[in-house]
Amino acid sequence: MFQRLAALLLLSASFVMPTHAQSQQQPQTDLARTQLSVGLYKIDTQIAQTPQQREIGLMFRKTMPQAEGMIFVFEQPATQCFWMRNTLLPLTAAFVADDGRIVNLVDMQPLTENSHCSEEPVRYVLEMNQGWFAKKNIKKGAKLGGELFSAAKR
Questions:
Q1: Which of 87, 142, 143, 153 is the most interior residue, by most CB within 10 Å?
Q2: Alpha-carbon torsion 128, 129, 130, 133, what sign?
């Protein structure tokens, strides 16, 4: 009886525990960084590569410099879908193939749960302030450069 009660309590606790992103409530600003380029432009990029880092992403950030972004790195190319729960900044997501090619760009509105997905399987998603790509005339098919994409070719 005691074992059954303990198992029931443990099971019910797992349903009420918040996810790490919900309990954190603070932006993550201490991630590793890498430099990316696209055309003549350089981007100082935070790297979200663990499941926990990707889950939090740019949540809770109130500002982000124009030449800064966050790149999400996944283990395998797949259809990647993003939403903006707890994300305060309007962002544009660039879904990026292994060779650095931008597969598609999607504008995302803050504090929404609309799903925005890649048009083909990708391993990378670069989030920038909304309008950054448009102001620089960077479109679908443009190529990003940087160590991440050099390593993917090997």
A1: 87
A2: negative
Query: How many structural domains does the chain have?
Result: 1
Both tokens of residue 73? 């790195």
Asked if residue 3 is part of any domain, the answer here is no
Dihedral sign (CA 129, 135, 141, 143) = negative
35 assigned to some structural domain? yes
84 is a domain residue: yes
70 within domain boundaries: yes
CATH number at residue 104: 2.60.120.1140
**Residue 53 belongs to domain spanning:** 27-153
Question: What is the value of pTM for the model shown?
Answer: 0.83
- What's the pLDDT at 25? 82
What is the dihedral sign for C-alpha 92, 98, 99, 104? negative
Q: Which residue type is seen at 58?
A: L
Q: pLDDT grade, residue 2 (50/70/90)?
A: very low
Q: Give the burial class of 37: count Cβ atoms within 10 A of its Cβ; 0-12 exposed, 13-18 middle, 19 or more buried.
A: middle
pLDDT(9) > 50: no
